[in-house]
Design brief:
mainly beta, globular, 14-stranded mixed β-sheet
Length: 176
């Protein structure tokens, strides 16, 4: 089986794995610590596997440990944005961000996910990210510079090269 085939097979396994909730307030129990970013409302969540998540002020999310190994392998994001950096091998089996409109799953990449106004936007800075709606099997794969906006419904997901102005605006919210 090709590397791409194994990735998507793993993605499907991730999507249907049992979920164990780890409240973000208890991140230390999940092997993670929060570091405030001086002079801002942002925080950085650092986990022992090398996973780093920049959290926009006011973001609402919950860490998940679906394989119950004591380390987060997903985050359920309900509001605002996260910038995730998951180095290759940092999270066994990959890492996923689950929102009301989308699931974005990766292995070894850096990407941003933003939830607001009834849609989820995903943008990739490094690596590749597979994105799909929670109730769909149709998957798009984003490469660096690609983004997708996912709204409720069943329409086709359209991958686009994001203009520099849009990328800059999102990354500025995350201190980048």
């Amino acid at each position: 089986m090709s590397a791409r085939g194994r990735f998507f097979r793993s993605l499907v396994a991730v999507l249907f794995a049992g979920v164990f909730w780890v409240d973000a307030a208890h991140a230390q129990d999940a092997g993670c610590t929060f570091e405030p970013v001086a002079g801002t409302s942002r925080q950085i969540l650092r986990c022992r596997e090398g996973l780093a998540v920049i959290v926009e002020g006011g973001a609402r999310f919950t860490l998940e440990d679906r394989d119950r190994n004591g380390s987060p392998d997903a985050v359920r994001l309900r509001r605002k944005a996260l910038l995730l950096d998951a180095p290759a091998g940092a999270v066994q089996g990959g890492f996923a961000v689950i929102t009301p409109q989308a699931i974005a799953a990766v292995r070894g990449t850096k990407w941003a996910v933003d939830v607001g106004n009834g849609k989820t936007s995903v943008f990739v800075l490094r690596g590749r990210v597979a994105v799909q709606r929670p109730a769909s099997t149709a998957v798009v794969v984003l490469a660096p510079g690609d983004g997708v906006d996912v709204e409720a419904g069943t329409g086709k997901l359209v991958v686009k090269r994001w203009p520099a102005k849009r990328v800059s605006a999102l990354l500025a919210r995350l201190g980048q």
